[in-house]
Amino acid sequence: MTLDRDALIIQVLDRLLELGCTHWDTANVYGDSEELIGNWFKRTGQRDKIFLATKFGFHPDGPRGTPDYAKQCLEESLQKLGVDTIDLYYVHRIDKNTPIEVTMNALVEFVKAGKIRHIGLSQPSPATLRRAHKIHPIAAIQVEYSPFERAIEQKGHLLETARELGVTVVAYSPLSKGLLTGQITSHSDFSDTDLRKQIPRYAQENFPKILELVDKFRQIGRAHNATSGQVALAYLLALGDDIIPIPGSQRIEYIEENFNAAQLKLIPEEFQTLKKLVDETKIDGDQYPPALQAMLYVDTPELP
């Protein structure tokens, strides 16, 4: 018997709980993921076992952080998820037209109402993070962070700012959108509908450097009977206890592989070898197509 997609997703969520992977991250723009998680909560009654994070802020006209829009999105997410409270609610992209204080004040009201427990920001600038943190403690920032994407270390010292303020860094796309698994060996491997085909950094001329770095991770992995992807996750984990990688997958075998990466402990020599390699490998090009790249590390207007 072939299971339909929804049934397969339910199996994946069941396995996540069995493994102890209980930090679940979604967003109101990730297709029907909120509804699927909500169905799982309803079926299992295990909402209390999950640390649930979702996001708002994307809009057809560009990132929107107005109080009315935040409230609308929150109520829709609560309904889809079938929950009373969201553990961590992120601003998905920063609205360059709305002072971050205005957005934060709305989110603080949601905290007071018991509808969210913690506030997060995704891809903020250091200045935006500081201003938001003055209104209410920011629990986490979510940024793309991997051996191929290290802007957080350079963009106005966002990583340094987060650590100064005690803000956890949740690293999305820690496997560089799958490239660090070694399954992609050429730009031509991307289908015409694959967003990665439009990413300047993944242009064909960059693949020799990409594959060289992946091979080095694979070589380190052989000593641990581990894959290049597992080594990449172990590398991020070794950067600090405040770094939480969240690799995404819909296949149980890959979820189990990623989970087991947490048991992989790089010896100091291996970590330093990888760090030197990552530091010395320069891959040109932005991490997103221009329209999406413009939404990263955004500052907002000052309050009048």
From TrEMBL:
Protein name as annotated: NADP-dependent oxidoreductase domain-containing protein
Any one GO CC term of the record: cytoplasm
Organism per entry: Rhizoctonia solani
InterPro entries reported in the protein's UniProt record: AKR, Aldo-Keto_reductase, NAD(P)_OxRdtase_dom_sf, NADP_OxRdtase_dom
GO MF annotation, one: oxidoreductase activity
Domain NADP-dependent oxidoreductase: 10-278
Keyword ATP-binding: no
Keyword Metal-binding: no
Keywords tagged on the record: Oxidoreductase
